[in-house]
Each structure stands twice: as C-alpha cells, then as structure tokens.
C-alpha cells in the first residue's frame, strides 16, 4: 500500500529535515477545522495533511488524533482500502503508448538526459504514464531513503481501521487522474522535471509552513507559478474542491466524519473551508482538543 500511495499525486507535497521554529499567530492558520451547524447533530472535522515526509520530520498533533477519535467515519481523498481503487491506481501509472512514441527524437533524447538526474532513464520509464514520471519529483525532493518516508493519511488510516471506523473516499482514482492529466500533460511534466533543485527549495518552504500550521502560506506556495498556472490550479484545486464540497454535506448528515485532504485544498476563495461556509456551515479552526 505504501508504494501505491507514494506514487499518487499526493506525493507532490513531500518533506524535508528543515524544522519550524516560530508558530504563526493568525488564529485561522490551523490544520484542523471543526464543521458544525446547518442541521448537523454532531460536528465533523477537516484536517489538512502533508502527504509524504521523512520520519524524522513527521508528527500528527494530538488534537488531530482526538478529532479522529470523536468521529464515526474516516474520509480520504481516495479510499486506499478499496482493492478496486488500488488496482485502478496501478493501471493508471502505465500507458498503452510509450513515452518515446509521444516525443520527437530530440525531445526523447532530452527526457532521457533529464531522467539520468533522477537515477533512471527513458528505457526504464518508457511504459510509464506521464504521472508515473511526475512521481519521480517527490522521490528526488524528499531528503531521506524511501524506507524512512512516512505517509500522513496512511498513519491516520491505520488508526481509523484499528478503531473500526468506516472508510470512504471523496473521489475515485480515475477522477483524480483525469484532473491531473488536465493540468499536466507529458510536455508539462517534463518542464516540471527540469526544475530539479528549485522544487526541493520550494518544498522545504511548504513543510515549514505545514509544521507551523500556516495553511495560508502552504496554499500560496502550492500555487507558485513555477508549478501551477491558472489552468492547472483550476484542474488540481478549484474543480476538485467544488466536487468535494458537494459530497461532504451528505456524508456529514449521516454520521460525524473526519476528512483528511491535502493542506493546499483548505484555503482561498475556492478552498474547502470557504465553500462549506457558503453552504451555511460554521467552520472553526481548532487550536486544541
């Protein structure tokens, strides 16, 4: 399961050994939010996550675990306990058309050279989808061996399963990959791969923001124009946030739920927090439980 999660788009938000020292003073900058009102009999919670990080940098705050304990359901972006979804994910990382057949000889030669910097080559990756290529960015940017990587949602999932909670997903693998492919075609992925060190620097800023619970800064970094233009933001954030915000009310009405989504999805005028507020719910940042 870990290998499958690691290959998801979620690994864009990888981690670093950089530690955060100063806590952000903005009370709205919290990774945990309570959802109440609008007919809910029990509150639900939304936790912004940082999908992949080194074990030395990994922490799930006690308030997050307490919120999970209080709820009946655990809802992830994708339900990793569904065998059909896991099979779909494996399939999505392969392509029927080789990468080299989608490129000119000069472009293929350039990609092969780029891939050498990632410890592989085009021959080995030729049957991968463009998103299989994209996963290399996180693996290279995370400053620790794969054996030392921790997966935020998987740790939460372990606790949810242990507590016998029901597990759901906000979207299907196919839906997620459709969004990713709208945002990043093969040429766009190659441009991302070229960034190399710039990505590592940007991701260091992201992990510092996350550890400070500064989800506003995390959202801003994620929207950096070097990794996301307006079209890509619409496909990766806005459209998905709107889809999730349409599904969440029905889930919360039935039972108290704990939602775990990437931290960059929380903030902004099209973020999950604001979208649920516009539907009449009360959203409160949680400092402690």
Give the key terms.
289 residues, alpha/beta, six-stranded mixed β-sheet, two-stranded antiparallel sheet, 8 strands, 12% strand, disordered N terminus, TraB/PrgY/GumN_fam, metal ion binding, transmembrane helix, TIKI1/2-like, glycoprotein
Sheet bearing the most strands, described? 6 strands, mixed
| Helix amount | 40-55%
| CA-based gyration radius | 19 Å
Low-pLDDT sequence parts: 1-25
Kindly report the average pLDDT value. Answer: 85
The helix-strand sequence is HEEEHEHHHHEHEHHHHHEHE
Strand order, main sheet: write it out.
6-4-7-2-1-8
Beta-strand residue fraction: 5-15%
Pairing-aware structural class of the strands and helices? alpha/beta
Number of helices: 13
Overall number of strands: 8
Inertia-based shape:
globular
Distance, first to last CA: 31 Å
Summarize the structure.
This protein is α/β, with parallel strands linked by helices and 289 residues long. It contains 13 helices and eight strands. Helix content is 48%, strand content 12%.
Protein architecture, described:
By secondary structure, the chain is an alpha/beta fold. The chain has a domain at about 1-10 and about 30-90 and about 150-175 and about 215-285. Helix content is about 50%, strand content about 10%. It is built from 13 helices and eight strands. The chain has a six-stranded mixed beta sheet with strand order 6-4-7-2-1-8, sandwiched between helices. α6 (about 130-140) packs parallel to α9, α8 packs antiparallel against α12 (about 230-255) and α10 packs antiparallel against α11 (about 215-220). The model is unreliable at about 1-25 (pLDDT under 50). It comes from Chryseobacterium glaciei. One of its GO terms (biological process) is proteolysis. This is Polysaccharide biosynthesis protein GumN. One of its GO terms (molecular function) is metal ion binding. It is a single-pass type I membrane protein.
């Amino acid at each position: 399961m870990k290998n499958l999660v690691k290959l998801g788009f979620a690994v864009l938000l990888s981690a670093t050994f950089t530690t955060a020292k100063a806590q952000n003073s903005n009370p709205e900058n919290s990774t945990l939010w309570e959802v109440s009102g609008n007919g809910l009999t029990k509150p639900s919670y939304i936790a912004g996550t940082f999908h992949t990080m080194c074990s030395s940098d990994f922490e799930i705050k006690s308030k997050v675990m307490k919120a999970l304990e209080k709820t009946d359901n655990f809802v992830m972006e994708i339900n990793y306990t569904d065998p059909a979804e896991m099979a779909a994910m494996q399939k999505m990382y392969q392509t029927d058309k080789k990468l080299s057949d989608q490129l000119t000889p000069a472009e293929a030669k350039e990609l092969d050279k780029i891939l050498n910097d990632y410890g592989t080559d085009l021959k080995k990756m030729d049957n991968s989808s463009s998103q299989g290529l994209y996963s290399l960015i996180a693996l290279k940017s995370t400053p620790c061996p794969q054996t030392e990587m921790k997966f935020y949602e998987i740790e939460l999932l372990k606790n949810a399963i242990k507590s016998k909670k029901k597990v759901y997903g906000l979207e299907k693998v196919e839906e997620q990959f459709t969004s990713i492919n709208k945002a990043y075609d093969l040429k766009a992925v190659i441009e991302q791969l070229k960034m190399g060190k710039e990505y590592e620097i940007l991701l260091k800023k992201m992990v510092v923001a996350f550890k400070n619970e500064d989800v506003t800064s995390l959202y801003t970094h994620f929207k950096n124009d070097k990794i996301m233009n307006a079209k890509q933001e619409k496909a990766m954030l806005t459209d998905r946030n709107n889809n999730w915000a349409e599904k969440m009310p029905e889930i919360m009405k039935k039972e108290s739920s704990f939602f775990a989504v990437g931290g960059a999805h929380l903030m902004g005028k099209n973020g999950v927090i604001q979208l649920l507020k516009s539907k009449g719910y009360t959203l409160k940042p949680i400092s402690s439980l």
